[in-house]
Amino acid sequence: MTDRYDVLVVGGGPAGLSAALTAAEAGLRVAIVDEHEQLGGQYFKRRHPALVARHGDYRAEGTRLIAAAHQAGTVCLTGHLVWGVDDDGTTLLVTGADGVPRRLSASYIVLATGAYERVLPFPGWHLPGVTTAGFALHLATMDRVPIGQRVLLAGSGPFLLPVACALVEVGAQVVAVVEANRPYLPRPGVAARAARHPARLRELAGYLLTLARHRVPVWQGTYVQAADGVDRVQRVTLAGRHSRTLEVDALAVGFGFRPSSELAGLLGCAVQPDPATGDIRPVVDEWGRSSRPDVYVVGEAAGVAGVHMARTRGEAAALDIAQRAGRPVSAARRRRVTARLRRLAAFAALTEVLYPLPLHLVAGVPDGTEVCRCEQVTAGEIRAAASFAGNGLNATKGLSRAGMGLCQGRECGTAVSCLVRTVNPHAPVETFSPRIPVRPVPATTVSALWGQPPVPEVLDVSVQAQVLNLFQDLRERLGLTILFIAHDLAVVRHLCDRVAVMRSGEIVEIADSDRLYEHPTHEYTRSLLAAVPIPDPTRGRAASRNHHTLQAGDG
Amino acid sequence: MTVTIQIDGRPVQVPEGITVAAALVSTGQWAFRRHAVSNQPRGPFCGMGVCFECELTVDGRPEVRACLTVVREGIQIQTTPRASATGPDTPGGGHD
Q1: pTM attached to this predicted model
Q2: Stretch A526-535: mean pLDDT, rounded?
Q3: Within 10 A of A366 (CB to CB), how many other CB atoms are there?
Q4: Chain B 30-69, CB below 8 Å of chain A: which residues?
């Protein structure tokens, strides 16, 4: 079953809410779909009512925006995960809050999928107690729990400052804010550009004053070289202008954010690489229109530029859609939005100048550093795979398994891409290819949607052989135990140490492979073995017929 | 208002409405799970449902992301990984 709307907004953060509100106010039938149980996204994340009662609302502007979107008649599909695109290239595959898969389509799709926080790897970043700056902020603001008693904040970007202030507010001691760049130094050209954004400057000055009042030093030109500890981070070694070793019980790291562009990629929207960061961002015009006339990309997904830009981009896209759908949009409103977009773009460009992504830190990590946390692939293994794989990021992934884990390369993607380009300086700037599902979903979800088994049963024989070799390789390298379910008894013997024979859902015989194949004891096992096709052209026909009979009778 | 939850069988009082991740962190419990291959301890990392590092077992349901789950009175949180290959099997899975 497919639900159809005029406008389908994916992502319920500031950009998606603004787009949905504006489109719904123009009289269009709008649905907003978001993975989380509450609208708001990361920026307007909602406190639980019990915590609102105790501590008051958090970012009340978000509460008002969500209420307005509801009131305007937006259909809110919260708890709905968009994980793929159907074969028609436009219908979105979604799993509902009840776990039931469904299809959604619309005349216009607005992608407001937000951004991921970026962390550049260093030895020890997998230790418990090392987190993103965003997690430290969410704990402090949503849950009112300090992430630690002695916390170090590190990375680069203006985001570290409000996080440090929030930690101070919940009673944590912030040992220092460690900034890899040196943005807080008076520089004539930059100061003149910054002076054009007085509201943003006041905000920044407010954070710096709060930190100064609490005697939190801001160490610029400094970065984390390594973290260590037993079962939890206990020490952090800093390098650069303020090199030293500190005792901490939490380390929160952030190097800004990068667009979540997988759905745009799956929908076939043109994307462009950013060589300075290794990010991919969708190509959009001022109104958020992508290379596909029915798909818009707004907010951080279209390029990271902050909450004000996100909201304005959402509004701009909805106005453009409303006009194309024949709804009245005043020229004055379009002009106001355009002017705001240009001012905010100038501020975003200034931020990029002040906080360039220090990819040289990735280029320099020791070979033993675990870069892919999920699959535990080290920098050295990635470098070796990259030099073997030539220019390809995805070939490097295939060879090294970096980026193949549950997070699907979202945490290590920037670093792996950087390492590949360090080894192969002429490699193109690219990200891991988006694949369906873009988030892990149970195989039963996929199978229910198409009414067929989750794995195609008919694979080319050479592909089958490659898959089997991969299984064996993984088993040896990772010490895995694999449960292999198959009809092909020759393959089963090749791959398995121990075999259980099932008939109508019951195990009739179980034994080590050699014993089972040489001395089958159950009648059904014997009949299966007798039916194995033998690659002999003179006997082939009879064996094949026999095999089919068995499948029909006992499958 | 507080709720009482069980962390590895130990009753703990935590504020109503906080996440399971916050509940564990506030009691000083940082290792949520062990890496399936290396047995390395792992704790919450991204806090927004992306990294899957904070997965644990809640009321017997495995692979629950602690950062996206809010505590409820009486829930049982298990940080140790499921024992491998000894879980309850479902007979008659339907495959021949």
Answers
A1: 0.83
A2: 78
A3: 12
A4: 30-32, 35, 37-38, 40-53, 67-68
